[in-house]
Amino acid sequence: MGDDRRSVLVVGASAAGLRCACRLARLKPDWTTRVIEAREVFSFAACGLPYVLSGDIGEPASLRRTDYGAIRDSDYFSRVKGVEVLVGRRAVALDVARRRLTVGGPDGAEDLPWDDLVLATGARPLRLTGQADHPRVVSFHVWEDVEPLTRALASGEIERVAVVGAGLVGCELAEAFRSLWGAEVVVIEAAETPLPRVLDPDLGACVARHLRDNDVRLLLDSPVERIRADDDRVSLTAGGETVESQVVVVAIGVEPAVELGRDAGLELGPGGAIVVDSRMATSVPHVWAAGDCATVQHAVTGDRDYMPLGSLANRQGRTLANVLAGRSDAFPPVAGAVAVKVFDRNVAATGCTKSSALDRGLTAQSARVTTLDRPHYWPEAKEIHLELVYEIPSCRVLGVQAVGEGEVAKRVDVATQLIARGATLNDFAHVEQAYAPPYAPAIEPLALAAMVAENQVEGVESVSPREGWGEHAVLDVRSPDEVETRPVDADRLIRIPLEELRERLGELDDSVEWVICERGTRSAEAVRLLLRHGLRARYLGGGLHWRGATGNGADTRRVGRVRQS
Amino acid sequence: MGDDRRSVLVVGASAAGLRCACRLARLKPDWTTRVIEAREVFSFAACGLPYVLSGDIGEPASLRRTDYGAIRDSDYFSRVKGVEVLVGRRAVALDVARRRLTVGGPDGAEDLPWDDLVLATGARPLRLTGQADHPRVVSFHVWEDVEPLTRALASGEIERVAVVGAGLVGCELAEAFRSLWGAEVVVIEAAETPLPRVLDPDLGACVARHLRDNDVRLLLDSPVERIRADDDRVSLTAGGETVESQVVVVAIGVEPAVELGRDAGLELGPGGAIVVDSRMATSVPHVWAAGDCATVQHAVTGDRDYMPLGSLANRQGRTLANVLAGRSDAFPPVAGAVAVKVFDRNVAATGCTKSSALDRGLTAQSARVTTLDRPHYWPEAKEIHLELVYEIPSCRVLGVQAVGEGEVAKRVDVATQLIARGATLNDFAHVEQAYAPPYAPAIEPLALAAMVAENQVEGVESVSPREGWGEHAVLDVRSPDEVETRPVDADRLIRIPLEELRERLGELDDSVEWVICERGTRSAEAVRLLLRHGLRARYLGGGLHWRGATGNGADTRRVGRVRQS
Question: What is the pTM of this model?
Answer without folding.
Answer: 0.96
